[in-house]
Amino acid sequence: MSEGKNVLLVGVGGQGILLASEVISQAAMNDGFDVKKSEIHGMAQRGGVVSSHVRYAERVYSPLIMKGTADVLVSFEKAEAYRWLEYLKPGGMIVTNTTEIIPPVLNVLGKEYPHDILDRMKKQGLKVVVVDASDAAEKLGNPRAMNMVLLGAISDLLGFTAETWHSALNMRVPKKHLDLNLKAFEEGRKLAKAS
């Protein structure tokens, strides 16, 4: 059994965050961990913020990740990584997609999207793995598989074996989409190792 982790997944509605958090939770349960998960959907169907807290250990008492305690911050939209930085523990890892989804409210407020987010995080000395998960999923034939590319990118950070991951994917992904999702997951593993 690997050691427990706190994994925070953030992004906007429609990016597959909830399925990714279910697969992580299933992998942890398959390895005998106590697992707690909490989700905040916001205005998910309208591109609003979505977050999912996944905690697993020998014993977990709360599903919420406290500020400064996330081992891994997974951002499906790169500005969301920056917004949630206070949850990352010292020495924690950020894995972010390169996707930029500019919220309409910025125009209303007369503000600009912070395109230099990755540079800002790196200048702070943070450990950041950048993956163009959207492009990888597009090349596989379905942009919606971006969530599985990101899941593959974090897979080595969470301490589960390849067999545990594949079992969790088999249990949580609908059979008609399983082959594509397995390919996307493996592509994410390759991209993370190359970055």
Walk me through what this model shows:
Helix content is 41%, strand content 23%. Strand 2 (34-40) and strand 3 form a beta hairpin. It has eight helices and six strands; from the N terminus they run βαβββαβααβαααα. The chain has a six-stranded mixed sheet with strand order 2-3-1-4-5-6, sandwiched between helices. Helix 5 crosses helix 8 (175-194) and helix 6 (146-154) packs across helix 8 (175-194). It has helices spanning 17-30, 78-83, 105-109, 117-123, 133-140, 146-154, 162-172, 175-194, and strands at 5-12, 34-40, 49-57, 70-75, 88-97, 127-131. The chain has a single domain (5-194), classed as 3-Layer(aba) Sandwich (Pyruvate-ferredoxin Oxidoreductase, domain 3). The protein has 195 residues and is an alpha/beta fold.
Question: Could you outline the blueprint of secondary structure elements for this entry?
Answer:
Layout: E1 5-12, H1 17-30, E2 34-40, E3 49-57, E4 70-75, H2 78-83, E5 88-97, H3 105-109, H4 117-123, E6 127-131, H5 133-140, H6 146-154, H7 162-172, H8 175-194
Helix pairs in contact: 1-7, 5-6, 5-8, 6-8
